[in-house]
Amino acid sequence: MKYSFYLFAFICFTSQSFAQSNTREAPEYPWLNQKFPVDQFINFEGDSSLLFQSDTIYMLSFWYSSCPPCLAEIPALNKLKEDFKGQKIRFLAITFDSQEEWSQFLILQPFDFEHFQMDRNFINQYRLAFGYPSNLILDANGIVRYQKSGGHTDPEKAWEIYDLMKEEINKVLSER
């Protein structure tokens, strides 16, 4: 019994010390309240799309086809786009997937955003996404007004992104 107590105390102490030594705050997204460093995207057909040429705001979703939280939030993002139809907002999906991976995926799972491909090393080098999925709201001047990284694999919890993004989009739209 005495040894069980010491073993229990040792486990509690070491697990608490380990948890404290490994906790740290997530780094702040470097482009928050800054001009997004990319103003042009290339789609899978090789056509470029310039951004920030009008009073349109943007929602960007960085994702890839084998990312479970990315996949879980697609229905909510499709609904979000549908709800803002006719307003001055573009919904862009950016992936580092190959064209083959991307096109095969979209056959099975519709994702109603405009789709663009970007090199994964470029995304990492410029810290455009902090994990996946990463969702951004940019104003018409290209300033990142909101950023949310990570998501849920549970389909019901994945819908949280809908409420978060809807609120942030409405904030930016109301300021114009």
TrEMBL record:
The lineage of its organism: Bacteria, Pseudomonadati, Bacteroidota, Flavobacteriia, Flavobacteriales. It comes from Croceimicrobium hydrocarbonivorans. This is TlpA family protein disulfide reductase. Residues 30-170 form the Thioredoxin domain. GO terms for molecular function: antioxidant activity; oxidoreductase activity. The keyword Methyltransferase does not apply. The keyword Glycosyltransferase does not apply. Keywords: Signal. Residues 1-19 form the signal peptide.
